[in-house]
Amino acid sequence: MTNAKLTLVRELLEAGGLRIGGEYRLRSGTVSRIYIDARRLYSRPLGRRVAAFLLARSVEELGATYDAVVGVATGGIGWGVLVAEVLGVASGYVRPEPKDHGLRRLVEGVEEGSRIVIVDDVATTGGALLDAVRAAEASGYRVVGAVVIFDRCMGAAERMDEAGIPYKRVMTIRELLSFARDMGVDTSAAEDEVANLRC
Ligand SMILES: O=P(O)(O)OC[C@H]1O[C@H](OP(=O)(O)OP(=O)(O)O)[C@H](O)[C@@H]1O
Ligand SMILES: O=C(O)c1cc(=O)[nH]c(=O)[nH]1
After folding, report:
1. Domains in the chain, number
2. Is 101 annotated as ligand-binding?
3. How far is CA 8 from the centre of its chain?
4. Which end of the chain is more exposed for a tag (fewer CB within 10 A), N or C?
């Protein structure tokens, strides 16, 4: 599987999806010298195929019985569809808030009562994953697991553990930077930050 992971990293780099050295404000409010723009993988046929394959493998590693794969809006919506396609199951997505028109749903595309796996591109603190879990549970779904492509090791695994949600990640940020370094990327501006991560 290392080859698939190497391909994923190469595709991310070629798509300009790894930024190191700037100042990036994250969803959690933290400012980081590193930014993973996994959305760029959507523009790469090979990158999105390999990411979907690795995510699907992570879903299988959960060992859960599930009916559907559900992406977290917005970055995770496409992954939900692509992974569900690999696994041959239903797909949908979770909104951050319900619309105030139409059906006013938080979870779209999937029948209530389904056993779902939540998928996202990046997890940092796990806040977005936890919000999606809570929204889905409050809407009548059974969340049987969560998977992400990149885990930035700032608490997502611990948060999923506390919430009792089985969780898998394709790659940690530490692995990503190590592969990137081997491919010639200067990661020195990220090193202090990575030293303090929980992975
Ligand atoms: O683990 P957390 O600390 O919650 O951070 C991770 C979240 O941040 C990103 O989404 P963002 O809020 O940038 O929105 P987007 O998906 O609409 O791009 C990412 O796609 C995750 O959903
Ligand atoms: O935590 C975030 O908001 C975040 C980090 C990151 O590297 N990439 C991303 O899309 N979001």
Report:
1. 1
2. yes
3. 14
4. N
